Every structure is written in C-alpha cells, then in structure tokens.
Write the structure tokens for this entry.
Amino acid sequence: MRWGAATLLAVCAGISVTGCSGLFRSNAKPEQIYYLRAPSAPPASPASSSPGSAAAVAAAAAAPASLISLRVVRPIADPGLDGARIMLVQADHRMNFFSGARWPAPAPELIESLAVQTLRASGDWASVQDSASPFPADYLLQMHVRRFEADYTSGGAAPLAQVVFDCTVGRRQGREVLASFTVAGSAAASTNHLSQVVAALEQATGAALDALVQQSLQAARIDAQHAAQNEGQPPPSPTPNR
C-alpha cells in the first residue's frame, strides 16, 4: 500500500508530537519555596539589655529618635551562604543543602528585607531604607552573614539553627564607623522535618535581628546626641595676634 505525501507528513507529525510530549514529563517533585517572617513584636528598650555604661545608655535614650534615619546596605555573605539554597553543615566540616527546597531569594537579599522590616517595626527610627532606596539617610548599617544554616554537627536527629551577623554602624557623611558588633541567635528544630528546620531558622534570625535593632539604635542615638551637643556649644574665642 502506498501512502501519499500528505498522509505520510501527518503520521510523522503525530509521532513527533508524541515524542516531544514525553520529553516534558517528569516524575521529580516540584521545588518547595520557604519564606521567613520578621519578628512581629518590637524589641525591648536599649536601656534594658544593651551593652555599655549607664551614662551611655542614658544618652542614647535622651536623643530624639525622630531625627535619626538609617539605610541598610546589602549584606555580604560568607562563601556558600550567598545563594538561595537552604544550607546545612555536618560533621567533618561538610557543607550541604536541602534538596528540592530554597528561599524565595538569595540569602543576603532575604536577610536585608527581614532587617529592614524589623528596624521599621521597632518604631525608633524616622525612616529605614533598603539598599535600593534613592533616599539618603543619616546612618548606614552593613551586615556580614557569618552563619545562616541548620547545624547537624552535634550528632542529634534534629539540627540546631545557627544565625550570626557581624554588623557595622556608621555615619553616611564621611563614612565614619561608630560601632561594630556581632549578633547571634540559635534555636533547636523540634523534628528533622524541613518545615521545623525553617521554623527554627526563623526563630534564630528573629533573635539576632532584635539584638541588631537595640545595638544599632544605641550607636546612632549616642552619636546624634553628641552632634547636637557640639552644635549647641559656642564657637571658641579667636586667639589674639601677638
């Protein structure tokens, strides 16, 4: 039996479509995207838990918060922590990630967003801007992500969420460093399920960010009050010529 050219073309086209449809079929599970929420409650007053002398804390509390604005610079992350994977560390200095799961953005971008939200929620700043904002601010906050992972090195079934940020607060004008400090948080996952690991990371991150709010606010307020006091002083008397 002979097939015409049109019939042969139709059969080939049908085979082609069938073959192509098989190429787009996959038994792999879809990737899960997990998010974190910033702490909902404002952190405690700097006078109750911030380090420093009593005079420094009193000076910080006296500075008018309405005059202080802050910009969060895009955080820097240690190698391995700058992607969107949810990272974990194991014994023998091994680093890995949870397969089939990720954050909605690279970790530095995620942490920047959480920091901005937490600082704004504190109510202690005239404004808090992110790294993409076109508006200037009086002070800058730089964060370095040292740890942001699930730690399995203790040998337990469930990991310990570990979060560590190195922070620097400085004046925008002149780029003068006012304070450098480290904030940290940790929380044990209740089970070894990824949803519980993420919940522990959210708790640990919230603890670190609460400490960040307190210490960065103290540094900026003390500097703002010193600046106000200096502006109120009379200019020095000129030295007579001899």
